[in-house]
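Practice record 12: protein with zinc ion.
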Amino acid sequence: MSNMIGHQQAWARVTRAVAAGQISHAYLFTGPEFIGKTTLALELTKLLLCERPDVAADAPCGVCAACRKVAHGNHPDLMLVAPEEGKRLLGVEIVREFVVRLANLAPSAGSWRVFILPDVERMTPQTVNALLKTLEEPPASVVLLLTSAEPENLLPTLLSRCQVIPLQPLTPHEIAVALEESWHASPAEARELAALANGRLGWAVRALEKPELREERAHHIEQIVTLAAAPRDVRLKAAAGFSSDGDTARRVLDVWTLWWRDVTLAACGASHLTSTGTARREAERQGQALGCPRAEAFLRKLIEAQAALDANANPRLTLEVLMLDLPRLGH
Ligand SMILES: [Zn+2]
């Protein structure tokens, strides 16, 4: 049995290719944050490297040494390539060192060398260029598994070299059952989180394990809503508070950017928002009041501010400028 929860269509697509010996050299799994893209990539890696795969069920055994090493992230033929701790962007040196160079070496144990690159929208143009060479002429034993929550922001040259597999949200029922059976949540907790998760099991699991994350997120959203109605001096004072160090500033910006995506989606008439409850109602209210171009313009400012922090800009200055750009809106 495969450990995959949900995503039957996507799983069927990749396992059919494996069974037919027609695995592609590059897949791009798309879908919102925490929907299960990296989990699917890891499960596929297990299937490729498993010593005793269940051929009839198209599933890795889950217990052999190879499967366990993949689960623990220490299989010699699996490389999970993510930005350095505290950085949002994946630097070109990391891709050169851990993808381009290693891709040319033969696998050390199984018959594949697998590279998982989560969130490929977080690459500098140089990083994408370095990666394209490997994507264009991948060595026979190489499989690249990319994920992205924002495929619309990827270069066409990157997209065209991958098989794109969109992941669909799980149903609240699937999430509730998984939380109870695999994460031992109480039925009440499972139901509540499943309703909030918007089809993203990973989000529900994180929220189950760290209730403080839910509170922190709600708090930061409340802050930006209050600040939208506040005068300049209050905003500038708040900016100083959020920017005591780069990490705090980044955490606040992460919450704001995700939530402002919802404001922008609501402003532009889309209905698939990630927020729920009060946060969602407030996103819809702000979105409708601002309209699509203004909401989108501030989303761009938020993304620029994140990039600036990655490039070691002064957190306080960055947040101050952002606070002055925040569209003014009464309660
Ligand atoms: Zn196995």
